[in-house]
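task queued by scheduler; priority normal; single chain, no ligands, no partner chains; default sampling; output format set to structure tokens
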Amino acid sequence: MTSSEARPRRGRAFLFSRFASVRSGLLLLALALVATATTEGRAEPVLPTAPAGAAECAAGAVAAVVTELYLGRSRGDRRVVSDAAWERFLAREITPRFPDGLTVLDGRGQWRDGAGRVVREATKVVVLVTPATAAQETTEGAGLAAASSREARVAAIVAAYKRRFDQRSVLVLTRMACAQF
């Protein structure tokens, strides 16, 4: 038996899986840090903006901004956002701000509270895909209202959700992507 036969090979697949697990760990750490941040004492939440620079996309695809909102449905041990209340919020606050389309997913989130207990919560995940140019809208020149920018619309949704359902935080993730419909 040669030395290469005695030892398992560690090729590209192994290296990719190691890289992916490190990257996943870093993503979870970033999510934990963002999720624990609060906006107490501020008039408006501070939202992440899309990364600088448009994505280079293949033919037929366009640069887009993907925004995900993670909206918890509980407060303490009780569910405060019923299905009916969620549907009303979606119809009144989210759909009018993003009428061209969105996706809503059901999720289950969890985190550790200050006492070290694992807290689990039903969650709604709203996925918004908008053209990258919409992320760079300005209020200058064309006379666009500040509320028309993607960031302002997302901030308004977050503020309304926190106020209406007494939530301390809403996780918002923003990233560049290529979209093809």
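post-processing summary
- The helical segments are 3-6, 12-36, 83-94, 150-165.
- The mean pLDDT is 74.
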